[in-house]
Every structure is written in C-alpha cells, then in structure tokens.
C-alpha cells in the first residue's frame, strides 16, 4: 500500500496544525503510523490521496448512515446553494426541519438548532441549570459529550470527591460542579445525589455509549435514572448525538420507551454538514431566549445549506423504515461473522453490538463500563487495526470507539470485512 502523498501532507500539516489534524481522533497515535488523507468518498468507500480504496466503518463518526455522497443529499445541497449561503434571518427550512425532529424524536416538543454536538450539550446543561436553579451535573465515566469544559472531567477514585479536570485549561471551579459515576451503576448515582442533596441540575449520558467503545445499558439502568430524576427534580438529558436517528428513527429513547427531559442531537442530523440540536419538554425549552431568560445563540445556526442536507437526510429516514431493518440485519450478520471467526481461532474477545453500532474489545472481560473497557489490550488492537487497513478495511483508529454501519454496505462488503477480520485476527495472535 503506497501512502507517500498522505505522508508528505502529514509532514506539512504537523508544521501548520497542532498534531497535523483538526480533531484529535483523526490521528493514528493510538495505533501507530500516519493518518491517511482522504480525497473523496462514495457509498461504502473512502479514497485516499494516493489512490487507495477502503471499505470503511467510520462513516464520518456516524453521520453517513446512508453512505457517502448520497444523491438525495447532493441534490438538496446543490439546489440550496443557488439561493445564497447564509442570511442571519429565519427561513422556511428551519421550521420544516424542526417539525420533522419533533415528529421523529419522542422527547422533543420544541427544538433549537446549533452547529455541532458540542454546542448542543453545552447549551443543554446551561438550560438545565437555568431551569432548576442548581449548579451541579452528573456525568458518567467514559461518556463523551463534546469538548465543553464541564465534560472534560476524569473520574476521581472516590465518586463523591470533587472532580479533577481532565485537561489543562479547565478550571477547578468548573470541575467541582461536574460529578462522575461509573456507567451502569445506579447505586453510585444515588450516593452522589444523597451527598449533594438539592444541588443537582441534571444527569447527562449517552443512553447507549459509543465513546468508550460500545457499551450497553443494563436492564433497569435507564429506568432507574428516570425514576431518580423524577423523584429529585433533576433534568434527565440523553445525549443522542451518536445514537439519534441511528438506533431507530427516534433514537435509542424510541427503542426503550424511556423518555428524557432534554435530548441532544448532532452527526446524522446534518447529513454530513455541521449541525447539532437540543430539544425537549416545552416547559423547559420555553425558558430559552428569546422566549425566556436563558441565553443561547449562533450566527450560523440553522444555516440554509446545512438545513438542506439535514432535512433531506431526516426526510429520507422518516419515510424509509426499511433502513433500520437493513441496518439491524447488517449489524447482526457482521457481528455473527466475527463471532464465528473468533470461535474458529479459539478467541473469546468481547463483542458489544446494538443495531448498526459495535465494538470488538480485545479483552475477555464483559464490558459494562469504562473500567471494563480499559482492560482491553490496546497494543493488540493497534496490530488488528493495521492488519485490517492492509486488507483495505478502514476502522476507527482507537479501541475506544464504536464502528458504524451504513446502508451502503452490501452483503458482499460484509463478507469481505468478515474475511479480513479472520485473516487479521489469525495474523496477530
Ligand atoms: C460526537 C459527539 C459529541 C460532540 O459532537 P461534535 O459535533 O463533535 O461537537 C457529543 N456527544 C456525543 C455522544 C458524541 O458522540
């Protein structure tokens, strides 16, 4: 595999951009080697600057659920471009996309558009704090909610002790207001609430976690959180930036029937363009400016080109329930193939899957939280990543990520991936 042009670009990029990339997850630091520079994408494929072709399972970290450069999205964007790029005034499409989101996502009665998932989660906790008049938030170890200060907090060993900033630049003051608990541990949440009685504005979580590798909520966990929040007057926020419009057209909340007070969205909602959104109960959303006193704004929010892509995507998903049947089937076939490979090779690694999201953890321990995930052999994952890449399969370059399936992935592609998985596992053990 010749990657000379990517290497040259990366050399130059490192002199101009921190680490050579505009988002850290794109670097190959965890798996070795240099990142590939992508020139184009179509359907299930990525093409790099050196002309290599890959079947890929990143899909822009989720958004490309119907494959790259889908003609519907292309047409919506090229039509929209004829009419100007941004006005800073309301447009018809914002009303139409809001109506779609409200009709698709069970918890959402009113919605505000922003430009990224990070903006959505930052706004959602501000709204929860403004609404409840309380300061502290509870998040879970290993859940990622974008790069807002409040979310960059590592778990302290004692969950009740004050949070420790996970990044220089996050103040102790901010860290003190973020409490953390292990995922799937209802008792730890109860203890945090008891120790901070009357001071907690919200609990925020990924209802199915994609950002420590795929982790599934245990039976009763989400329900338990819902009950605790009701009892204590705490706002429950599902961060469905990854799972929204993916695990069903109404997100994971539609699958489980557990309805949060606020929901954050992103990724798929923009069809590949930068869009995020937060929404929920009218009573809470009506406290947002200019309807209410909680301030949140954006010069390019509801941008005409971005909403054109998003509206085309959501309309398609809303009208094609067979998309989700296919994604389930594709996810099941792919993971069954990997399981069968492991059996043949005498391996017993943990494979977590929900629908079109999955992670193969290089550990034999069941993975139900971040501590479990950290038992994975990341060096072995790096070898596996390189072995797959060599065979033309491009995976997320980290053990702690979920893989995403799109409808562009045919049964033939799945066979190719399963075969590559067998060869790669065999090569590295
Ligand atoms: C990606 C992601 C975010 C952040 O979204 P950006 O658009 O990258 O700012 C927030 N929450 C979850 C669950 C995510 O997966």
TrEMBL record:
Cofactor: pyridoxal 5'-phosphate
One record GO biological process: protoporphyrinogen IX biosynthetic process
Gene that this polypeptide is encoded by: hemL
The protein's Enzyme Commission number: 5.4.3.8
PROSITE patterns documented for this protein: AA_TRANSFER_CLASS_3 (PS00600)
InterPro entries tied to this protein: 4pyrrol_synth_GluAld_NH2Trfase (IPR004639), Aminotrans_3 (IPR005814), Aminotrans_3_PPA_site (IPR049704), PyrdxlP-dep_Trfase (IPR015424), PyrdxlP-dep_Trfase_major (IPR015421), PyrdxlP-dep_Trfase_small (IPR015422)
Modification type N6-(pyridoxal phosphate)lysine: residues: 267
Keyword Isomerase attached: yes
Enzyme category, top tier: isomerase
Name of this chain's protein: Glutamate-1-semialdehyde 2,1-aminomutase
Keyword check for Zinc: no
Keywords assigned by UniProt, alphabetized: Cytoplasm, Isomerase, Porphyrin biosynthesis, Pyridoxal phosphate
Subunit structure: Homodimer.
Gene source species: Pseudarcicella hirudinis
